[in-house]
Design a protein that fits this description.
By secondary structure, the chain is of the alpha/beta class. It is built from 15 helices and 22 strands. 30% of the residues lie in helices and 25% in strands.
């Protein structure tokens, strides 16, 4: 066995050179794996740039139908007979408390933080989640979300379904033309979706043309699902029960219970599946709030992280003195014993389940010559939940446009999903009583503008 084991870091398809370069440096990565391209973007070219700029990066794994010089072809490797025997694998000594995989946080202070998930806690996570999700031997899970996410990978995801002796079917994309025929052909029992994808599927005219009667459970995660969407799903796919999942790559996962009445399932995210999870809802002073009141979710448990990777300063802020992780999510306790999501304390924009750090985008925009100051806030969107709106105070004598700012961010290597999708030019920002930019007021302003535009 090698003296030093390597673990995969689960970057996401939208990540580009800016993010990947940071991960390579921070995690001291020796290899990078990707498809050869996505649309008109070449991951091969980006990988070669990374290899030239990061000396420790020496292995490039590319999934492609053709060979690329000095790259290992993943498709050929998967087709080749294994060189190691089962006996060789049995000889490998694995520390169950060592990291098995590095996940990424949603990130509020720039590039996502790295979450070490150990062999023990990740298996424990998937065993419990798959039980709460009623996965059984012979069931089939269709995965159409990026498998680097904690949800489709292990909560319960691919890992949970394999643990239960089921099948996993990978769809080419979350589009209806790729998902619906596979559900019918493979007799899929479980779907794991984000609300934006579920809404698109339910409103696609092709839905009624496919036999979806095998579907038993539809899970949604990443952002809050509206009760009306849950009810519509169960009406259009009568065989299914909608089960909302609330979770974080840092650990804690909750499910609403499958035998709860619809009014409870539609409103709550349920309780944690694990009875050893300790949850406190606290106020700004760290004191527990009264039952029914909104507080920040703090959690400690057997599969929740004890600290981010190589981030002692962040860890000092992210945990209470007695080891509770401070999530930044705002919840309240429901009379049923479950929880209701009321928002978040952290400065994140939730675009279809992808968490965008407003501060990261702001810091990059401040490098543009036409931007004197900027504040990024969420604006409401009927499909994705939220999109990013950038309020900009321009530099004197300039007139920045959304197109120019996005071109600048693209040149800096920022992932496309993080780009602002609306620009509002202002002369000043509203301030809080403490003299800080009041993003609450800006978010309310853009929400009013969007709503008034809908009425026209």
């Amino acid at each position: 066995a090698p003296a030093r084991r390597r673990r995969p870091l689960m970057a996401l398809p939208p990540h580009r050179k800016y993010e990947i370069g940071h991960f390579v440096d921070f995690a001291e990565a020796v290899g990078y794996a990707a498809a050869d391209r996505a649309g008109d973007f070449s991951f091969v070219e980006m990988a070669r740039e990374l290899e030239r700029e990061h000396l420790k990066l020496r292995l490039l794994f590319i999934l492609s139908d053709r060979d690329h010089p000095n790259c290992l072809n993943l498709r050929q490797m998967m087709r080749a007979a294994p060189k190691a025997s089962a006996e060789d694998l049995e000889k490998i000594d694995i520390d169950p408390d060592a990291p098995a995989v590095f996940q990424l946080s949603g990130g509020t202070t720039g590039i996502p933080k790295i979450i070490p998930r150990t062999h023990n806690d990740y298996i424990f996570n998937s065993v419990g989640c798959s039980a709460a999700n009623d996965m059984r031997e012979g069931d089939g899970l269709l995965v159409c979300l990026p498998i680097g996410h904690n949800f489709p990978l292990a909560s319960p995801g691919i890992q949970g379904m394999f643990i239960r002796g089921g099948r996993v079917i990978l769809a080419e994309s979350p589009r209806a033309e790729h998902v619906l025929p596979l559900v019918a052909k493979e007799r899929v029992t479980h779907l794991e979706l984000v609300p934006a994808v579920l809404i698109r599927l339910l409103h696609d005219p092709a839905l009624k043309n496919h036999d979806l009667s095998s579907v038993r459970i539809v899970n949604t995660g990443g952002q809050r699902l509206q009760p009306e969407t849950s009810a519509l799903c169960e009406k259009l796919i009568p065989s299914c029960t909608v089960q909302e999942v609330f979770g974080m790559a840092e650990g804690l996962v909750t499910f609403n219970r499958l035998d709860d009445p619809p009014e409870v399932r539609y409103e709550t995210i349920g309780p944690p599946w694990c009875e050893d999870d300790e949850i406190r809802l606290v106020d700004d002073d760290g004191k527990e709030v009264a039952p029914g009141e909104v507080g920040e979710l703090t959690v400690r448990g057997p599969y929740t992280l004890r600290g981010y990777f190589k981030a002692p300063e962040v860890n000092a802020r992210a945990f209470s003195p007695d080891g509770f992780y401070l999530s930044g999510d705002l919840l309240r306790r429901h009379p049923s014993g479950g929880y209701v999501v009321e928002g978040r304390k952290k400065d994140l924009i939730n675009r279809g389940g992808e968490k965008i750090s407003a501060e990261e985008v702001e810091n990059m925009l401040l490098g543009h010559e036409a931007v004197r100051n900027v504040a990024c806030v969420p604006m409401p969107d009927p499909v994705l939940g939220e999109r990013t709106c950038a309020f900009v105070i321009p530099a004197p004598g300039t007139a920045p446009t959304l197109e120019a700012l996005c071109a600048y961010l693209t040149a800096q290597g920022l992932a496309k999903f993080k780009m602002p999708e609306r620009l509002e030019i202002v002369t000043e920002f509203p301030l809080s009583p403490f003299g800080k930019v009041s993003k609450k007021d800006l978010a309310e302003r853009i929400a009013r503008i969007v709503n008034s535009e809908k009425k026209k």
